[in-house]
Amino acid sequence: MTSRSTGNTDTADLDSSRKGPLAALKGLLPFLAPYRRQFVLAGIALLFAAGATLAIPAAFKQMIDHGFGASVGHQGIQNVNATFLALFGVAAVLAVATAARFFMVSWLGERVTADIRAAVYRHVVHQSPEFFETTRTGEVLSRLTTDTTLIQSVVGTSISLALRNTLLFVGGLVMLFVTSPKLSAIILGLLVLVVLPIVLFGRRVRKLSRDSQDRIADASAMAGEILNAMPTVQAFTHEGIEAGRFQQSVDSAFATAIRRIRARATLTLLAIVLVFGAIVFVLWLGAHAVLEGTMTGGDLGQFILYASIVAGSIGALSEVMGEAQRAAGATERLLELLAARSDIQDPLHPQPLPPRTANGARVSLEDVSFNYPSRPETAALAHLKLDIAAGETVALVGPSGAGKTTLFQLLLRFYDPQAGSIRLDGVDIRDLALHTLRGAIGIVPQDTIIFSANAMENIRYGRPHASDEEVIQAAKMAAAHEFIERLPQGYGSFLGERGVRLSGGQRQRIAIARALLKNPPLLLLDEATSALDAESERLVQRALEAAMVGRTTIIIAHRLATVQQADRIIVLDEGRVVESGTHASLVAQGGVYANLAALQFQAHLPLEQLS
Question: What pLDDT digit, counting tens, does each position of 569-585 carry?
Answer without folding.
Answer: 999 988 888 989 888 88
